[in-house]
Amino acid sequence: MTATLLALVAGGLVGLALGGLGGGGSMLAVPALVYLLGFSPRQAASAALVIVALTSAGGLLAHLRTGTCRCRAGALFAAAGLPFAAAPGLFSAQLPGALLTAGFAVVAALAAWRMLRTDGTVRTARAGRGRIAATGAGLGTLTGLLGVGGGFLAVPALVSALAFPMAEAAGTSLLVIITNTLAALLGRTGSLAGLDWALIGPFTGAAVLGAWDGKRLAERFSGAALQRAFALILLAVAALMLLDAVL
Q1: Of 34, 94, 97, 126, which has the most beta carbons under 10 Å away?
Q2: C-alpha–C-alpha distance, residues 86 and 76, integer Å
């Protein structure tokens, strides 16, 4: 299988995750770039930011058309987290990599456990601005400390802490992802020139198309089914990262 074909297949899977579940794209993109396409971890991290930002933008358009994105809440959620991501990010550079990996695994497992405890039904309650801002700030702190992607933890936070239905959490999280990835790219502009854009291009194109398919696929399943699927993905990633930290 050629590298371009691998990029197309991997990109499609990343797009399905982002479009259908509103998160998990970077967790799929980085290992795909490293283990399938031969990118270094540093190159993969930068390339994944580009891929996820563009794919999330495509997926967000689909959610805007169907009204499953709470833009005001998402913008406040994302903005509240950005200032809190800077200081923990500086502190995390002093921590051992294995400790950060283990911490990420624990947070992911807790998020999955909390999502499995909820029923996935549509809730009518609207969270206040203060609670949205506080939750966004907490997520920003975790993002800065553990280096996690926004959507990976934004979806559980929106569902569990802010009582968003799964479909709206998936759509709103894409706005959070775009904000976080663009902010992260500002500090990586120097590393973008050396990337293999001949592979990133097909990867991104397939991911954008996959995001649209993921959105349509998600409409065929209930909120509870999507929640369980996302929680199981979180648990699988948590288990793999915990093994990586221990071994």
Answers
A1: 34
A2: 17
Cβ pair 234, 43 in contact under 8 A: no
Count CB-CB contacts under 10 A for residue 122.
Answer: 12
- Backbone dihedral angles phi then psi of residue 104, each to the nearest 5 degrees: -60, -45
> What is the per-residue pLDDT across 57-97, written as a single tens digit (0 to 9) for each?
888 888 888 888 888 888 888 888 777 766 665 566 577 76
Q: Which two tokens stand for residue 105?
A: 């695994």
Q: Model-level pTM? A: 0.72
pLDDT surpasses 80 at 38: yes
- Which phi-psi region, left, alpha or beta, contains residue 195 (left: φ > 0; alpha: ψ -120 to 50)? beta
Give tens-digit pLDDT for 120-171: 544 444 556 777 778 778 877 776 666 556 676 777 778 877 788 878 888 8
Chain centroid to Cα 86, Å, comes to 18
Structure tokens at 154: 């934004």
Instruction: Tell me the C-alpha distance between 80 and 109, whole Å.
Output: 24
| Cα(173)–Cα(19) distance, integer angstroms | 10
